[in-house]
Amino acid sequence: MQASDNSGLVVRGLTTTFDTARGTAIAAADVDFDVAPGEVVGLVGESGSGKSVTLRSVMRLIREPGKVTGRVEWGGRDLMAMSDEDLRQVRGSEIAMIFQEPMTALNPVLPVGLQIEENLSAHTGLDRRARRARALELMTIVGIPDAERRLNEYPHQFSGGMRQRAMIAIALACSPKLLLADEPTTALDVTIQDQILKLLLDLRDRLAMSVVLVTHDLGVVAATCDRMAVMYAGRIVETGTVVDVFAQPRHPYTRGLLGSVPRGRAVRTMLSSIDGTPPSLTDLPDGCAFHPRCSFATEQCRRERPPLAPVAPGRMAACFHHDRVAASEAIL
Length: 332
Fold this sequence. Notes:
- Keywords: ATP-binding, Cell inner membrane, Cell membrane, Membrane, Nucleotide-binding, Translocase, Transport.
- InterPro entries: AAA+_ATPase, ABC_Ni/Peptide_Import, ABC_transporter-like_ATP-bd, ABC_transporter-like_CS, Oligopep_ABC_C, P-loop_NTPase.
- It comes from Rhizobium tumorigenes.
- This protein is α/β, with parallel strands linked by helices.
- It is built from 13 helices and 12 strands.
- It has an 8-stranded mixed sheet with strand order 6-7-8-3-9-10-12-11, sandwiched between helices. A 4-stranded antiparallel sheet has the order 2-1-4-5.
- It is globular and about 65 Å long.
- It starts with 8 loop residues before the first strand and ends in a 5-residue tail after the last helix.
- The model has no long low-confidence stretch (mean pLDDT about 90).
């Protein structure tokens, strides 16, 4: 996935492993992707495919027994080579992250307003009064009603949707240029999901901000993202614009995901599904990790791992039989 210039995010060969009692789990393997300024990129896949680990690895938030290798460049600087102090200056100010599960991500014993102010205190020279005013402004921007009163309230006094808005306010406190959003609509009802996604897109436009959006919801991807990267068993298996990937998937896993989306065209019809289960990350099969579940698999797939390679203008796929997949019956 190619970004337009070096002012964006460039990830190359990102690999994250965890030593466990059952062996080494490869949670992310040779992950490559770029994010251009102002672009929204969706990172898609089933639970356990490596999406959240990838974001945490980019932010260098993986702790022992995890190990991370590879290159992560932001604005031409290698985040992996930065000192802890330099990295702290980047986190929160230039790159911010919205964590999954706002119910547990907020500190339950601190008022929400103070949690927003903490980020400002770490990255700006604002005095207490200015930080308070900025926190109030942010809560208003993200659509929290009666913001002045709610500055002094605690997370348990907020609904799920309001907690997520508070998390967004914390992330945006220092006007970052890149936002990493890990399942920002998890556990929210559909109406609130729509509000949160529209808010993120509005803020992207107002702040000229790039976004990496982790989700398993293809409807969210269709509504919000410019490009997408599909992950399976820790690897990116397909990339491209959302329009192109939805119109003609080039990897059988992507095809299976799209095929499982309800169409609403027929009554009492079975939903399509992908046979089998994802492999254990401590015991990945030889060759392509998807071959045990793939109807296109051949002996080559069982022996060799296909590289992520260009298959069409602006498209990449890790499949020896991408032409057969593209030529198969339309699924949408």
